[in-house]
Amino acid sequence: MRRRTCLQWLAAPCVLSACAKAPPLAEPRLRLLDVLGGDDTAGYLRASAPRAFSFPADHGPHAGFRNEWWYFTGNVDTAEGRRFGYQLTFFNSALRPPDSPGLSSAWDSPRVWMAHFAITDAQGRTHDAVERFTRENPGLAGANDGRVWLEDWELRFGDDSRLWQLRAFDAASGMGIDFALRQLKPPMLQGRDGLSQKNLEPGNASYYYSLPRLSTGGTLRIGGQDFNVRGQSWLDREWSTSALAPDQSGWNWFSLQFDDGQELMYYELLDQNGNAHPQSAGNWSSRDAQQTYITPAEITLTPLATWTSPAGTVYVTCWELAYAERRWRVDAVLQDQWMNLSLPYWEGAVDVSDAETNAPLGRGYVEMVRV
Amino acid sequence: MSTLATLPGNSLAKAHSRGSARLLWRASWRHARQHRWQSWLSVVGIMLGVMMVVAVDLANSSARRAFDLSVATLSGTLTHQIVALDGGRVDDELFTRLRSELGIRASAPGLRGEVRLQGRRFTLLGIDPLSEAALERRRPGFATEAGALLGLGLRTLASARGVLMQRDAAAALQLVPGAEVSLRSENRDTAVVLAAVLEGADAQALEGVIVADIALAQEVLGHSGLDSIDLRLNSEEAERLRAWLPPAFIVVDAGSDTATLQQLSQAFQINLRAMSLLALLVAALLIYNTASLSVLERRATLGVLRALGVARGTLLRLVLGESAVLGLGASVAGAALGLLLGQVLVRYVTRTMDDLYFTLTVTRFLPDYRVLLEGAALGLGLTVAAALLPAVQAANAAPITLQRALPEEYAWRRRIRFLALLGVVLLGLGYVLLLPERGSLVEGFVALNCIVFGFCLIIPFLLSCALALVLALTLRHLPQTLRLSLRNIQSGIGRTGLAVAALTVAVSVTVGVGVMIGSFRHTINVWLEQTLSGEVQLARLDGASGIPPELERAALALPQLREVRRQYWQTLHTDFGTVRALAHDGAAADQLYLKQAAAQDLAAFAAGDVLLLAESFAWRHELKPGDTLRYQTREGEQSVRVGGLYFDYTTGTGALELPLSRFRQLWPEQGPQRLSFTLTALADRAATLEALRTLTQNFPGAYGVAANAEIKALTLAIFDRTFAITDVLRLLAILVAFVGVLSALTALQLQRMREYALLRASGMTVGETARMILAQTVAMGVCAGLLALPLGLWMSQVLIDVINRRSFGWSMQHLVPWLVLGQALVLAVIAALLAGLYPALRIRRLSPALALREA
After folding, report:
1. What is the CATH number of the domain that holds A311?
2. Nearest to A109 by CA among B793, B153, B641, B755
3. pTM of the full predicted structure?
């Protein structure tokens, strides 16, 4: 789902201008394909047919595709009950097809990398976000069978694919995480057996799986102060080559973890009028990891409250979500979890409760992007 | 009541005053029209003076901005840099470690090199667009629309072989985006694609720059590694970095070296500016002359006006007003012409800076329009100031005095003694100012101006005495017309004296600068002779580990070569900044042009105990033999005593000579950078050079092979180019003086028309009268020429021993090129002769009867 995010951010000129200056307040008008050569997918592998996933190999990089990312979100608490949300993402995007000739220099980089890191402090009512960009070489960023890194931010996974380590510290903002994660449920293959079709054209799809529940523990730093925290995380993994659909104007993405051990992922693509696009889709995972594909006809999303960003974009911060005769209320922990980065978007921790009784049922993360 | 009564009276007085002011202005206008020549010459004089000042200022400020822009474009806003201690390259991996181990993100790789595109020289700037974004480096051409540029940067990164150029530079080579071109560096060609052109307000800063992704830049330049890692750190981060950094690297403050270079090139510009101010001084003398003459000529009118009750203040304002009008017109025109001339001069100035100090990436004319205003204001101010004395004279004299015949001439005879006294005081002041060994450059120029101006003030007195002496000694031997000419000069000493002074100053500038340049050129020649050992030089150009021993052996195996001397150099980080440390095999006295080194110091040098400093470096940092110099090595800080000084005319941040043993200790891996071979008796030089060139092609690296004669010719060519601008300025100074002499003589002769008419009426022929006038101007030219010699020689001494020393720390031998002196004399006479032509021709048309009646 987040393919668009990655592609656009990596490619857009304004991404880089924003790195050099204060983040822009105006919502960007990204023209990804202007820079990256548009729909030129020649030379890259395509996600055109279902494939057999194999772990831990598929946690590592998939050479030959244009884009790939590792997307962690999670909710954690201190022993005293102080609540935090976090997001750490590694994106990469190829600058040229893998078999095109390169240069002999150690700096020759067929790929560029980007990382986003954000922490929401529910008690302190703050949300901070930072980003990093770098070329791949000489060894500045990359991915192999056990590690994904961008300078000193890294994700490690060993032979035992159930154990993960996340480490990112940002000196300027005084925030960081050093987490150990353990996979609690098997990978959730999104779309049809992991092939997430974005539109009707063959190949315009991604390989997409999630680890919907990772127990999380370690140190979280905010304002230079360290906290011992425990909680649960969600990992989204996606790789693809295909380009954007021109008739889409944004999306809303939900990853909800219910206290009873079930999960819901749903992305609602928006058409040019802001209505749900027929390609929207989701997945329900039962306690025993049985998955159910969700079509747009089966789910109803009703906005209940909104928040307007300093740039004037309206984001929904309270939803009513109805699926399979159940109705939930999804509330943002903080109204302002705006990622004021090169490409501003809203991504933040949410609470899930029963729409009728208001009884708390779980937690999650929501992302809203308006292109 | 009283208020009411006074009101009409006041208005009347005002109306009257307005009426009389109009009348006075009309009288002035008529006078100016009647003396069109004189007015025009004044205007031309001021115009030329202002033009010079404005042009030089514009050229300087433009060159300075080009320098600043170039530095800013290539370095940008940095605080620190990591460089290799041995002056080599910084490993690529060090950057990765810096980011991933130390987490210093405000960092970017720095790499640049020289490339040629279609034969034109460019600086190839290798950047990592994404690191630049993290460093937040601001630099011209990159600053605005950073996003657009970095987006383009990313596009070049994407296309792998894309480069960026400034729009005009690309257009000049008829390149459009998508064009495939070839970049040449050290005899290698690399194909690249012009990915896009850079536009925008300050993109002109990138005129001489080709921007490429760092990977492509390394590919084009044919090497790995970086020049530097550029950083923006606070002091705490810098300390943390220093503690972490491997010993082969060092953290330096950004910009310290460019500051030294800037200081040096500024000194060069101050020299130019001083010369332009001298020209304006000459122009001021001319203005004074014009104003005082116009007062003198209108003595009858002014006397009548005073008798009619025109107030002194009104006359003062009138004379000043006239000058101001002339000055304003001339200054505006001068500033406009200066703008044109500045565009020519800036090429000389930037070329010099480029040759000597720094590779400029911008050479275009970047006018600072404030200079135009300043120049025009200076011209106007000087005009009014120069007219002040004549104006006061006009206002202060009683009506009766004003009408008396030639009172000014008598007054002048008294006044020249006073002026001479003032001149002596100024000369003394100039002398005293030059006494201290050290002092600022500005003080040096103040002293120089005191000397020039003081000398100027003495000239009328000297001239008067000399004429009296000549007339007394040759009373019976001189022909009548010549005696008349000389007496004419003497009786009009107020004007002739000033005209001679103006010409003297102009010609003395020629002498002073000519002698200085001659001496300098001679010294450079001697220095080259002394320091270029052998006959053929082989040098490694790409700054790598030096010339491989196999190449040296192969060269010596050539039958034409017999002996070799080796020269080594490396970058050394001292307490006083980065310097070039050199070492030679062989005795120091054979390789260096020593300035100050005792025998025991040379012995200590040979034993490796002391080092020798380049004179200019020692001067700049006030170091002398016996002092201690500290420098950084891989093993930590070391210090060595300074044993002596040697002459060095290379430009840059500084140089010193290390004993070879110590050099080898510091850089055991470093091979010689230059080999000087001696030829066998029968060797053919051209064939030997060719053989050496062929030989070098078998070895990795870039080499240069040249005969000593070629190096000398090239050095002197650069030298001559440096001083070419002074030729332009000298010529202009002469032109101003010529206008001054012409104006003074024309006025003088025209004023004397009645006397000439009388002479003509008493039987003197037209030819005799014309000859008399020409004899007079030639006599003045000879006087000016002769007086210019001592002043010029004095000026050269100040330029050599004070100005150059304070500017660059160079000392040089004095050489008096007799040709320059002879030329100066001839120049003065020709200028004076030409100035006499118009009055001489005019006398031919003179009707004695009419002239007598008009007078």
Report:
1. 2.40.370.10
2. B153
3. 0.65
